[in-house]
Amino acid sequence: MTRRLLLGCSAVGNALVERAREERGDRDDLVAITDDTGWVSTLRDRNVATVEADPSDPATYPDSAAVVLVASDDPERNVAAARAARDRYPDAMIVAHLGTAPTEEQRAAVEAVADRVVDPVEAVVDRVSEAIGLADGRGASPGAALSRANADDGEKPARLLATLRGLSGPLLVVAHDNPDPDAIASALGLARIAESIGVDADACYGGDISHQENRALVNLLDIGLRSFDGVDLDEYGGVALVDHSRAGINDSLPEGHPVDVVVDHHPPRGPVAGSFVDIRPDVGATSTLIAEYLSRYGIAPDRELATSLLYGIRIDTKDFTRATATDDFEAAAALLAHADESTLERVESPSVSPETLRVLAAAIENRDVRGSVAASCVGEITDRDALAQAADRLLDLEDVTVTFVYGYTDGVIYGSARARGAEVDVGELLRDALDPAGSAGGHASMAGAQVPLGILSAVDESESLPEVVEEFVAGRFFEALDDAPAQPTGLPPEFPTD
Fold first, then answer.
1. Of residues 225 and 411, which shows the higher confidence score?
2. What region holds the RCK N-terminal domain (predicted)?
């Protein structure tokens, strides 16, 4: 199977081929088509499979191609080759070199069919590699990046664009309910990617943006997120989920609603449906994945998007101290050049709501500490995000490495767990304890749970509802903790082990 196809050749195309051959030798699966005899001879001398033919004639093309680089110096030939490649490979990622001195008409014609257009003035080999989706944004050489395109990850950018192009109408990007910064930024980023190829997209959320820092982020950056309450699903040709992976589970979609795209970093708790699914639990934030796609498509994020993505990464990794991978550091470094640091400082120092202070005080007062584990029932709540903040703060207690804070509202018990330097995977711990009664899971160092109150709400006069909830939840939590196996590594759970 041909994965990369070079149509026409020039200094740009030749440099890419030369570096690829240095890295991979005869193992490379690049095919070149050019009618320039000089380039034919040069490419064949490097053992590149080269067809001497018109690069705009689809009759000479191989049966398949995942990535197509149009690289002639002749603008008119590049227009013809780009059009022919799009007709022959509708799902491929096409990057077109404009050639020497293109007219505005030629530029517009190429832009209409290519995923990325490389201006000859700005065309450098590393940038072309990144635009094709072969570079990984980590400063690797084009040859090294080109050699990785055989891997599934190298094909994901092309498959995502193919999925978006195949939609019958606009895309609805759905963040999980009561979204955190990672979900907010990821939804905006995926909508930006769709719009870059002419697909209209709306980012939306259910529930409330209640955490004071999240509200500050949305207000200061004037972020345009739609409330799901005003969404008519019939108006959209496709649905994407970000920062979660199942429709109707922690979002406002009907359960089991068809999904086209899923991008998430949480370990799935069951089969994930979607035409395109990218779930990477080893990465600390979904914003990292979205930033990677933006880089691979050559899309420079504007100030608002870059700031949101950077903040999403920082929050989900707790400033790179929790569940952090190399990808998170590199994505953040790339975003920093585009982000507004002064806005981030204002977002990180918002006023604290009275409810957050009340929940934190209740978590401290009601804590049940057993060894290095602290659990606390805070009773009825009005702000679910306050639970996560309280769980984070309880980790500051001396000798405490695992925390679990829970409360209830609107007929549902919500809980948030955190771990630092512990030998317990809190995602698995909550699954074992509460998933049979509701929904629970997450990462080794950060997890959450939702359990319907159900019959617990029908308490007799001798007991209060907080006491009943605490007895039920704490009993299951500590029982699961006693049965939980230790992590198979001596490293803290936030350290990557692969």
1. 411
2. 6-118
Cβ atoms within 10 A of the Cβ of 234, count? 6
Q: Mind listing the pLDDT tens digit for each residue in 357-367?
A: 899 999 999 99
Q: Which CATH class is domain 155-348?
A: alpha beta
pLDDT at 494 over 50: no
Mean pLDDT of 149-164: 72
Q: How many residues does the chain have?
A: 498
Strongest mean pLDDT among 84-98, 120-134, 136-150: 84-98
Q: How are strands ordered across the β-sheet holding 373-380?
A: 368-370, 373-380, 402-409, 412-419, 446-452, 439-442
CA distances from 32 to 10, 58, 113, 126 (A): 12, 13, 20, 19
CATH of 4-118, one of 1.10.10.10, 3.40.50.720, 3.40.50.300, 3.10.105.10: 3.40.50.720
Specify whether the CB–CB gap between 78 and 8 falls below 8 A: yes
Residues 393, 442, 401, 369: is their CA dihedral positive or negative? Answer: positive
Pairing mode of beta strands 49-52, 412-419: unpaired
Location of structure tokens 């006693």: 482
Residue in this structure with the two tokens 């404009």, named with its chain if needed: 98
The residue type of 304 is: E
Q: Which helix (H) or strand (E) holds 203?
A: strand 201-205
Provide the residue ranges of all domains of the chain, joining segments of one domain with +.
4-118, 155-348, 354-483
Tell me the two tokens of residue 106. 């030629």
The answer to whether residues 251 and 206 touch, using CB atoms and an 8 Å cutoff, is yes
Task: Give the confidence band of 496 by pLDDT, cuts at 50, 70, 90.
Answer: very low
Q: Of all helices (H) and strands (E), which one includes residue 345?
A: helix 341-347
| Digit-coded pLDDT (tens) for 449-468 | 999 988 677 666 667 888 89
CATH topology match: 4-118 vs 354-483: no
First to last CA, the chain: 30
* Interval 72-82 mean pLDDT: 91
Distance CA 377, CA 368 (A): 9
The SS3 call for residue 264 is strand
CATH class given for the domain over 354-483: alpha beta
Annotate 30-77 with DSSP letters as a single string: EEEEE--HHHHHHHHHTT-EEEES-TT-GGGS-S--SEEEE--S-HHH
